[in-house]
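MODEL INPUT / OUTPUT PAIR
PAIR INDEX: 1
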Amino acid sequence: MVIISTYSQFYPAAQVLLGRFLCHQQIEGKDPVPGSPPHEPSALNRRQKRSGKEPWYKNTIFVLVGDHGFSTDNQVTDIDLLRFRVPLLIVGPKVREIYGATTDRVATQNDIAPTIMGLLGNSFTHQCWVRDVLSVKDSGFALIKPSGNDEIVSFLRDDRIVVKRPNAPATLYRYDAAQNAHAEPINNPTETAQMATTLAAFVERATRSLLDNTAGAGQ
């Protein structure tokens, strides 16, 4: 397994290992990020073609996933939504034929492990809010809690996102996180209350698990 990071603390190692492949990744409105190798689609395509000649290829699943998105001037909602728009590519035997080329189902990085286990045909036990997103038929859901001390949280379901800060009313949006990302507030007190209640339940359960030191333990 090879992992290449764009984090600046890996820059010296990247300079040694990657040599001429070094570049500066420029995000609009942000300073350049050093040490970002240009993983263009053609490079991935060449790697896949070479792997396809190996005897283990037909029994292998390739997973490419981003760590996080990037902040831009377009924050979309009260929470910086595009920072949590993360790409995921799964390449494996019959994946495209069975599940299609793309899916719009809302999911999180935590859902990747059970999804891969489902593709492998293996069952496993876990204590997390995760699931095999390729085996369900609903539109999906996700929770967002930024790292650090920011107490803002949000809950996404289908094309809706509810955002909540302490001591402030919840705000409901209809969002689109595609290339031209945008959102519009929704004035629907009933739907806002329903999604805010679901969000509060997740936050309360997670907080209690942390306080009781039972996170990840068998329940």
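PAIR INDEX: 2
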Amino acid sequence: MYDLYSAKIRLAGKLENEVWKHDLTAPEIHVLRHIHGADAVLEITDSGKKVKRSEDQERSRLAKFYRNGPEKAGEKLIASIFGVAGALPTTVPNVSFKEVEEFDEDKDEIVEEKIERTPISAPKPADSTESLLT
């Protein structure tokens, strides 16, 4: 059984090309990080849903969906990330369930109120003759 997530994906790691994907499994997040870059999968949130698949079914699904080229290319990609056999991750660590509320205008105001700007003053010029004597 796999937890399902939503995440923002930066295609090829580019800031100008972001898309949201939903109902991602933990192995799929690893595949996306492999394809687009380790830091290209952002704002991962647990959707609160689960899907029941065997590891073989998940490997097959990912190989079919993320193949680029010949039929066996997907299988090679998945094997290069997870190995030929073995357990796939079922969860993404350090991700908690998040309510659908994505933007809260009140939080903007609170963040701005907490910012304290300390004026930076220029250092006072030293008396040149006094600094030469010491």
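PAIR 2 NOTE: The chain is about 35% helix and 20% strand.
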